Amino acid sequence: MSDLHALPAAALTLGAGQAACVALDVATNVATAAELVRRSADQGSALLVLPELFLTGYELHGIVADPAAHTLGADDSRLDPLAAACAESRTAVVVGAPTRDQESGQLRISALVLGRDGRFVTRYDKQHATPAERAAGFSPGTEGCTLTLDGWRLGLGICWDLGFPEHARAAALDGAHAYLLGAMLGRGSGAHQRATVLPARAFDNTGYVLLANHCGPSGPYHGCGGSAVWNPDGTLLAEAGPDGPALATARLSPAALSRARTDEPVLTDPSLTAQVLPRTSAVLD
Fold first, then answer.
1. CATH no., domain 12-283
2. Most Cβ neighbours (<10 Å): which of 110, 131, 169, 264?
3. Which interval of the chain is the signal sequence (predicted)?
């Protein structure tokens, strides 16, 4: 377990991106992701987060029908334009994509992480697959994931993970200063979750929360957009509108973390809160 009281030495600028994606068109969606990386870099971001299944759209049945065509992996050449954008702009990216386990063949809803040099760093598999996702053929992941970037620890989540308070708390107990979520939150109940649950996760864990959300039709849903960043006290820091393409860019402050954790020291005794679930860690270049 990391030191829960350790703070980063300097501020960090992150971006949450949203744009329409084309159903099962990996090449087009990679190009869109690359353009968002460049735009985010122009706004000073060291890391851009993009929505759940952004590289295919939320097209569960199409992915399952032809996983060889629609799943992606660490060495997939279709990621090359995105890797080039990261390397050229020195901006890392976390982007949603379907993956397939090479040994078991299990399908997963994942977040792929490319570093500022464009190289693949790690992947996080959604731990809380919905009943519909499991019925379609997707398996839940088994481990959380924490990234380290410029002294900031960043816990990853995907969509329905946000509905389980222990998921964000496990990241916090692993020393995360921010919780980064790619999602498909639709109009209606999804918009309500966005407005209520995510600021609560920030306040509960005295850490920043970032949401990158779909902003158009994809599969059976229409994303409500509103990609955003919340402060460690649950107040809104940055927000995109309902439509895209758009970015929510925010400067994360060690001082704001310190103030929140002094005023509301909820992580002082981990034994009273939750057990740290299995996690992997990766350092971004």
1. 3.60.110.10
2. 110
3. none
